[in-house]
Amino acid sequence: MTDAITVYSDYVCPFCYLGRESLDRYLADREEPLEIDWHPFDLRANKRRPDGSIDHAVDDGKNDEYFEQARRNVRRLQERYDVEMTLEIAMEVDSLPAQVVSARVQRTEPYETWLAFDEALLDALWQAGRDIGDEAVLVDIATEVGLDAAVVHDSLAAEESREALHEQFAEAREAGVTGVPTFVHDGHAARGAVPPEQLQRLVEGV
After folding, report:
1. Which end of the chain has fewer CB within 10 Å, C or N?
2. CA geometry: angle at 184 spanning 52 and 203, to 5°?
3. Predicted local distance difference test score (pLDDT) of residue 1
């Protein structure tokens, strides 16, 4: 059985994107395979309007100063990991549709297919600045990695897909996850876009 690292993340979190870059670097140097056991997390739950738009008037404690500090941290990590990003913050994008589809693909398709879709979602947002909350964009991304467009349409139309995703959100909260990315392996956790050597210590204990 292939070993796995659990990753709690939300596609609209820039630190999740940068954390995956760090994880990819660790995996590139690792001899044994290590799969990514993705668990979705909802950063916008309390700010999402019924139509999917984001209500920034909701007070969640994140003011202009918070976002400016976040941008500085993103730029610092971009330099550290030598990563180009079109966006530093994706405040207007709602990741819920992308997470609905990704969770469905994870449940129903081979791991390699899900991983390709997952990585394509991250690149579409942070490299190309595309709105991964838009169904047409999700169809483009899905077909680019060999999935049928019906996977996107069916996932978004099925209430059970959303219910299953919200159950995963609840499971993340019950597991004590309060921020993303959070990496978990063998009962130990690391939070944030930590460097590859810290992920190595988490997984290998060295």
Report:
1. N
2. 140
3. 65
